[in-house]
Amino acid sequence: MTNELLEKLSSRCSEFLVHAVDVEGKSGGIEKPLAQFLGDWGKIPITYAGGVHSFKDLEEISQLGRNRLNVTIGSALDLFGGPMSYEQVLTYISKCNAEKGEKYMSRYTKEDIFKIVEEEDVEFIRLQFTDIFGTLKNVAITSSQLEKALNNKCMFDGSAIDGFARIEESDMYLYPDLDTFTIFPWRPAAGKSSTYYL
Predict the structure, then answer these.
(1) Given this model, what pLDDT does residue 85 score?
(2) Distance of CA 156 to the CA centre of its chain
(3) Which of 103, 123, 134, 144 has the highest CB neighbour count under 10 A?
(4) With the CA atoms of 165, 166, 169 and 170 taken in that order, what torsion angle do they form, in degrees rounded to the nearest 10?
């Protein structure tokens, strides 16, 4: 990977997802030179993936990446049998964002959404996201499953989505962004449909 390659590719996209393939899936530590290289370049948003297995790794990514890198965690999460608590990771990220002054008030709370869904007679919810090629994907659920979805307990087979996960790490959780909740305007007055982006 070179600066020239990043410059060339960045003219054709708005962000990068970079997999450190030599360490990915091994939960044995990050690829430090790559994290530092990406942080030094840092001209568009970059998400680093590969090797994270501890909070020390998250701190190193923050330092080496000059606070410019996002990060993904896979098999190291307790959701997949790893040592890192999902809830503690969320707490850690919230704390880091607050320290950087990035804490913000969401447009909607869970309670707001439950109320809107009931008042607007929403029957179906689409949880939408894109694959690595930008193709729109979605999981449709009924309003009776909304609480499960808002508690991040809806799962899907990541290995069936191009660029998401390998077969041995295929079970993935959907994590709705509450601020993207929208009711489709073209649905009939009764039995409306809404969507979230992930």
Answers:
(1) 93
(2) 14
(3) 123
(4) 70
pTM comes to 0.54
- 127 pairs with which residues across the strands? 139, 196
* Low-confidence stretches of the chain (pLDDT beneath 70): 27, 100-107, 162-170, 185-198
Secondary structure of the chain in the HEC alphabet? CCHHHHHHHHCCCCCEEEECCCCCCCCCCCCHHHHHHHHHHCCCCEEEECCCCCHHHHHHHHHHCCCCEEEECCCCEHHHCCCECHHHHHHHHHHHHHHCCCCCCCCCCHHHHHHHHHHCCEEEEEEEEECCCCCEEEEEEEHHHHHHHHCCCCEEEHHHCCCCCCHHHCEEECCCEEEEEEECCCCCCCCEEEEEEC
